[in-house]
Every structure is written in structure tokens, then in C-alpha cells.
Write a structure and sequence with these properties.
With 165 residues, this protein is α/β, with parallel strands linked by helices. It has one domain: Rossmann fold. The chain has five helices and five strands, in the order βαβαβαβαβα. A five-stranded parallel beta sheet has the order 2-1-3-4-5, with helices on both faces. The longest helix is centred in the C-terminal third of the chain and has 51 residues. The protein is elongated and about 85 Å long. The termini are far apart.
Length: 165
């Protein structure tokens, strides 16, 4: 049995069938914290309420807000959230804009979208894990430096007291 994956993932897709397809596929891939929204406004309310997703998978063309609007507002509230855009429109200008505003990737909806999506989600997870490990290593290095400094100061004081005797 594969391990459960606890990254918080938001799926923002106004097409209810496609939303359910993505959400269920993520759950089948052992992602345990998948929340779905049918609009950018619903998603933003959840973030304003304190839920900070690791990954946001969203359609670019939403009813009231486009994906860039959601991305810009979300990044102010949750700067570490990574975005993967999905769209049925193959538009290079839209793709460039999503990346320019901080999206991790832009995927055209086709018959292998779900496979591409899972691949990108796993790549983002690896980056998140590496960032956490990096923080732990930095803390260890600081602690090691402090302990080393204390030992050096102790020896200096010890030898000074021996020399002054």
C-alpha cells in the first residue's frame, strides 16, 4: 500500500465534471488533503480563513475571475503556494503570463493531462521537501556553530586561568 501524501492541494475548476475528475484522480494517487472549489472567490475565502495550500491546480478561464487574478491575490495571502494552470486553450501569451506571475506550470487539457498533472505535483512536493530539509540543516549548522563557539571560549578561558596560576 502506497504512503499517504499530506500536502494540501486546492483544485479550482468551474467545470464540475472536470473538477471531480481531477479531485478523484489526486485522491487515487494517495493525496489525502484535496479540497475543491468551483470559483476563484471560493478558493480565496478559504485562504483568507487560514487554509494555506501547498499546491493550487486551477483552470485559467474561470467565470468571474481569471486564473491570473486568483494567482495574484493568493500569492499575497499564501506566497509559498505553487500554481499549476490547466486550460483547454493553447495560447502562448496566456502561458507566458501565468509563468510571469509566478505559476509553476501551464498544462493544456488533453488526453494525458492527469498524468502530466501528477508529474508536476510530485515535482513541487520534492521542492517543498527539499526546502524543509534545508531549513533543518540550517538550524543544525547554527546549533553546531554555537556549540563549537562555546567549546572554544571554554578552552580559551580554561587555558588562560592555567597560565595565570
Amino acid at each position: 500500500m502506497a504512503a499517504k501524501i499530506n500536502n494540501l492541494i486546492f483544485v479550482v475548476e468551474d467545470n464540475k465534471v472536470y473538477n471531480k475528475l481531477i479531485t478523484e484522480h489526486l485522491k487515487k494517487q494517495n493525496f489525502t488533503q484535496v479540497k475543491y472549489f468551483f470559483s476563484g472567490e471560493e478558493c480565496l475565502k478559504a485562504v483568507e480563513g487560514g487554509e494555506l495550500p501547498d499546491i493550487v491546480i486551477q483552470d485559467y478561464f474561470l467565470e468571474k475571475m481569471n486564473g491570473i487574478d486568483v494567482l495574484i491575490k493568493m500569492k499575497k495571502l499564501s506566497p509559498k503556494s505553487q500554481f499549476i494552470f490547466l486550460t483547454s486553450h493553447d495560447n502562448i501569451e496566456v502561458a507566458i503570463n501565468t509563468i510571469k506571475f509566478g505559476a509553476y506550470d501551464y498544462i493544456i487539457k488533453d488526453n494525458v493531462t492527469l498524468d502530466k498533472l501528477i508529474d508536476r505535483v510530485h515535482k513541487i512536493r520534492k521542492v517543498i521537501l527539499l526546502e524543509k530539509q534545508n531549513k533543518q540543516i540550517k538550524k543544525f549548522m547554527i546549533l553546531f556553530g554555537i556549540v563549537t563557539l562555546i567549546i572554544v571560549v571554554f578552552y580559551i578561558l580554561y587555558f588562560q586561568s592555567k597560565l595565570s596560576e
